[in-house]
Amino acid sequence: MTSARIADIAREAGVGTTTVDRVLNDRGNVSAEVAKRVVDAATRLGSRRILPDAHRPLSRIQLLLPEPQSDFRIRLAHAFREFRNIVDRNLSIQIDYCDPFDAVAIARAINSSNAQAIAFAGTNDVILQHAVENAKQRGIYIATIIGDIPNTARDVYIGIDNRAAARTAVWLTSSRLEKSGSAVILTSGIDGAGLSGRIDGFRDALAQYLPGVTLAGVHVTNDDHRQCYNVLSQALHKNEDVVLVYNCGAANEMIGEVLKRQKCQRQICFIGHELTPITSAMLKTGEMFLCIDQNPDLMARRAIERMAAWCGFTAGLVREDRQVDFIPFTLHTRENC
Fold first, then answer.
1. pTM score, two decimals?
2. Is there a single domain that holds both residue 198 and residue 272?
3. Residue from 125, 122, 130 nearest 148 by CA
């Protein structure tokens, strides 16, 4: 609906245009009763004007964040909590935690939500596609974070370009690797939270920049430390020519343990994600060559800004129609960790 004119609002509220101007621009000298009539009239007519705080209705944003079980997820949750404390007082932000691989639970949360905007991280699952479509039919703004689900009706994806991040890492690593051997990918899962983009980007870059290095396998670890340790140990035992290990998910410290304990004929280059005290130490000792960081603080800020602007809140922000809002990723080596 197009934004209502002041004259239309005045006619609907039964007041003069000067009174409407005073209410919408917070100039005072209007009783609370008359101000409420003006605001109610503007709402009925579909006005998109940003109302003064005293007359602005409460809006809700719901964040369906990954359960904080890894350093990155903890950082992301902390960033969202920090930004929640500085937003407009009439904007309520609710944080709930979901397993990003549990499409049923996420869909249930979306279907039962009464928020005006929802952000979530999930998998490319049919049940989630339907949940997003239903939410859009109810007028809810939908943002995907961490990993995109482009074949849904979501309004925007906010996060890094996962494919480009993996490709860039391989390109930078190619100059120091032996030109023959094999590579191993470890991942939390195959389809979800940007993982498929990372895997595809790594595979494509490997073929382009290191054609003599073959991909020996993609192994799911579920971010479980013991499983990660066992899977990589078995992969290195089976493939004695491994020169490159790429971990899409968490449990980086276990990869370091495996690489230290394995008696390898060749130096193995390790690429991982998220700068934490653990990965920083691994970079400094040389156990990890390159670390890709998703900048969770900026991701949280942009997500809240986009949803708040959609709801008509937060002075200085402009509603954007971009369907992809890439957050710049940062590459860390031993020199800048």
1. 0.82
2. yes
3. 122
